[in-house]
Design a protein that fits this description.
Largest sheet: none
Distance between the termini: 49 Å
Number of strands: 0
Radius of gyration: 18 Å
Length: 125
């Protein structure tokens, strides 16, 4: 086996282990999952707070629960899918690739994440 195949196999095994762990163990019920240091020190939620519980909910088919735990995380999965599609098809659709990698789109995404961070603390989402 080549080194690349071994690395891919190890990454796949780790990904499956990660997904199974989050599927069968609720992060809010077990201490093995990391806690948000930002929340612990400031009392404010970071943009990622609730992501572990959202992963658990998604893996168990509870999409609305995942949105309630962290809406921006669920939206981010769709955004990542768009970027993966753009990367895979960049030769076939170069205009789309340039669009999603434009400064306007990147800064808009950054503004969206910052707005989420502020609003979830102001309105206690």
């Amino acid at each position: 086996m080549t080194r690349r195949i071994i690395i891919i196999a190890i990454a796949a095994i780790l990904a499956v282990a990660f997904l199974l762990t989050y599927m069968f163990f609720d992060p809010s019920a077990y201490d093995i999952f990391p806690k948000c240091q930002f929340l612990m020190f400031t009392g404010w939620k970071c943009p990622g707070c609730g992501s572990q519980r959202a992963i658990h909910a998604l893996l168990n088919g509870q999409v609305w629960e995942a949105v309630k735990f962290n809406a921006i995380f669920v939206l981010s999965l769709a955004i990542v899918a768009v970027y993966v599609y753009g990367e895979v098809t960049k030769c076939k659709h170069p205009a789309f690739y340039r669009l999603i990698n434009s400064r306007t789109v990147i800064y808009s995404l950054l503004a969206m994440y910052i707005a989420w961070w502020i609003l979830r603390n102001v309105f206690n989402w």
